[in-house]
What does this fold into?
Amino acid sequence: MTTDAQELPTMAIARSPDLHATTEPWFDYPITVYPHHTDYAGIVWHGTYINWMEEARVACLNSIGIDFADLVKLGCDLPVVELATRYHKPLRMGMQAIAKVRMEEMQGVRMEWECRIESRDGTELYMTGRVVLVSVDREKGKIMRQLPPAVAAAFKKIRGI
Amino acid sequence: MTTDAQELPTMAIARSPDLHATTEPWFDYPITVYPHHTDYAGIVWHGTYINWMEEARVACLNSIGIDFADLVKLGCDLPVVELATRYHKPLRMGMQAIAKVRMEEMQGVRMEWECRIESRDGTELYMTGRVVLVSVDREKGKIMRQLPPAVAAAFKKIRGI
Amino acid sequence: MTTDAQELPTMAIARSPDLHATTEPWFDYPITVYPHHTDYAGIVWHGTYINWMEEARVACLNSIGIDFADLVKLGCDLPVVELATRYHKPLRMGMQAIAKVRMEEMQGVRMEWECRIESRDGTELYMTGRVVLVSVDREKGKIMRQLPPAVAAAFKKIRGI
Amino acid sequence: MTTDAQELPTMAIARSPDLHATTEPWFDYPITVYPHHTDYAGIVWHGTYINWMEEARVACLNSIGIDFADLVKLGCDLPVVELATRYHKPLRMGMQAIAKVRMEEMQGVRMEWECRIESRDGTELYMTGRVVLVSVDREKGKIMRQLPPAVAAAFKKIRGI
It folds into this structure.
């Protein structure tokens, strides 16, 4: 796979505010902090949140009828090409929280997802993040020109369009 | 710990180009891709790069006489408060590469590091990333007002100031 | 911490069959395979199962009123001193399964847990494992002579004694 | 893949002492503990050792001319079917150690490896482990009847036969 991504100095993930549909709902994915998520500081290690962001994204797709494993079997992969996270407050062992995700934008085969990890009552914010995925033809190892029609339809559904 | 980080919509990691010292050298940390680094697609899973960025950073500190474990014992922690990565080309099982890191900026207790993962001959670019750390007083759980003097001196050394 | 564990050549985890209470129930912890759990072979990487075994154990303790994070705060840690797993059939991306755990034996401060990862309908067996934990006094860094009374009582409850 | 592995109650990894060649040398793989290897207790999380055991094994194969990635491309995989570890003394952040590995036995397509993680001066023992691998035909998803000749020859070389 070769991506068109520029080097990071121009890193701000492109995002035109007016394309941003603020009305779509968040998908909630509950998480619990287990020992293997923590580091020497007794808090969740910063890389662990990447796992949860992925789990929430795949569970969200599943909730609208897209089985990610099936997508891969059909020859379509969705690798992450950009990622950004901000850590607001640490999660600690035994805590429970909600990873909220939603697809923000879809431009051709490029999808941008937003994630917020919050306390269950919504009063605490632990992490915010964004991730950009592109759809790749697994056999050719190249970015697809367009999404498979069934996938495109499901993604429109997820965004309430 | 409570950080001042704003939510991600204002996410571009602040970075004034003229504060950027382009002369400091990169620290090279060699990496090899083992099976546990890969995912179903046969390439390195995107979160794995976070591990390598951390390893390279800690090894770089060590190379200038800062033992991170000692720093923690002395009550100073350096949690990641912002992270951004861009994936250019995938690394595959068995490949060897270099994670290059350098500290870009230090503003008070806030340090920004840059990372590039390249082929050993420098002709291929796999990932670029940035990470912002702040120094935290472990006992108080709060961001420090200033770095411990010994640490500040070592960090100046790393940046060739 | 120093443990009394002998080297592995005498590795068979000691277990006298007649001390084995077959009547205690299993605790069921549902799992789903996400991309970060897999490796290049498209199946779950063998080390990932260790995470699930831990999650199931901590969730089981929680179900009988033992909050592991509280236990640690009270100065009691439960490090793993022995681990054994056998892989029967691979789990693949997107699959759901049940990690079943139960405490098999408790001899002083040494606890042995058994784990089975099965399909939800119980017809497929993916992994079997055992883990031995000891309770350690976190401050002294030494194995405890006996469990704190409240913990011992809860553990007896979990084993239906 | 379907393995013939029995359930764990008969778990002791079969190993007839007289087949044990004590003369083969250990392969040394140096390791350093980074923050992401640790857990809330400030020591290396027990599952992290599985990563190091794998890295040492693959590096050992590489040292005798077997590129594991090539082996996989040729259609031969070596999944772990049994694993056992014993934790003697914890490794802590910043520590350096040696993961020593050697192949103990090869019976048909079944290989047993031993691992010891020790201090660099050999005076401290942190972990001992064993792992059993079988060679699997990736296309058929079945255990091979015999190793590919080139692989068998290299494995004999590793064992000094």
Summary: Chain C touches chain D through 39 residues (CB under 8 Å). The domain at 24-158 of chain C is CATH 3.10.129.10 (Thiol Ester Dehydrase; Chain A). The beta strands of chain C are 27-32, 76-77, 80-87, 96-107, 110-118, 125-134, 136-137, 142-143.
